[in-house]
Amino acid sequence: MIRVGILGAAGIAPQGIVRPVSRRSDMEVVAVASRSAASARRFAKEHGIRRAYEGYAELLADADVDLVYIALPPSEHVGWSIAALEAGKHVLCEKPFSMDAAGARRAAAAAERAGLRLIEAFHDHYHPMIRELQRFLASGELGAISAIKAVFTADNPFSPTSIRHVPELGGGALMDLGCYPVHWLRALGGAEPDVVSARAVLNELGADLVIDATLAFDRGPLVGAEAMLHASMAPGVPFDASIVITGERGQLRAENVVLPHKGHSLTSDVGGVVRSWTVAGRETYDHELDAVARAIGTGEPAATEVSDSVATMEVIDAIYALAGVLRPASPSYLRSN
């Protein structure tokens, strides 16, 4: 039995860990911690969790916790991931994993020293839809690929206290939404891309409200293709989580790549023949926990372990640099070492 403790009584935690764990016989959520004792107790009572802690360090000291799920602001991810690893716990951390690639590398070193799993919660990557997209690309049906565009947009009203809009907490469209298209392009490209260009529209706090970037691959199925990503949390923007792949023989469009279990479609138009289909699968979070349990139980690395996180953050760093977006200073745990 893998006993799970949650750091942060956040809105993502019920769908990201509590409910999918409840559908399993090999995992149990045994504790939750929050900065506020009242918040921790309220969350524990609502979700039937036995122990509630005021402060994250108390949960890390709990010998009955094997795996820590981190649902804190991105600015806190690396510091508490390292603390959990040093306390002898495996870690499943929400995305984006860190504020920058330097932080991700520091956490990767901590995981290697501890000999423990450190996995980023890109839940969508574990759904069979991603494998189907990779299969379709590999089939060559579209011929040589000329362009691929990955989009994630969602209306997110501005608030000066929202973690999604405050740069120092890890806010911004690229961090909150665009990290998914970055990951999709990396997964489908099968290689690490170069960032060719990027531009951003900023909010009044300096976080990116909209971001566009063009990437290029020098090998793999997307070599020579214009790889574009677009992320926006501008007011009124419609929800869109899609990938469009254009080749010499036609096009493939995938809808709702981020939450395919809530309804998705794949539509190809090759030589004028249109075909639409879906991919069978459970909730993305269920597939993710399969990989987490396998990694802990067998030592088989999960696809989104921290080496993958480092590569994603390197792309994000490069996009921000080319877009001219000023990033917050490195967190204290990096500056002091």
Sequence-ordered SSE layout with sheet pairings:
Elements lengths: L1 E6 L5 H10 L4 E8 L2 H11 L3 E4 L1 H5 L6 E4 L3 H13 L3 E4 L7 H14 L3 E3 L7 H12 L5 E9 L19 H17 L4 E9 L5 E9 L9 E7 L7 E8 L2 E6 L9 E6 L2 E5 L6 H15 L7 H18 L8 H4 L2
Parallel strand pairs: 1-2, 1-4, 2-3, 4-5, 5-6, 7-10
Antiparallel strand pairs: 7-11, 8-9, 9-10, 11-12, 12-13, 13-14
Helix pairs in contact: 4-5, 5-9, 7-9
CATH homologous superfamily assignment of the largest domain: NAD(P)-binding Rossmann-like Domain
How much of the residues is beta strand, in percent? 25-35%
Strand order of the largest sheet: 8-9-10-7-11-12-13-14
CATH fold topology of the largest domain = Rossmann fold
Describe the structure concisely.
With 337 residues, this protein is of the alpha/beta class.
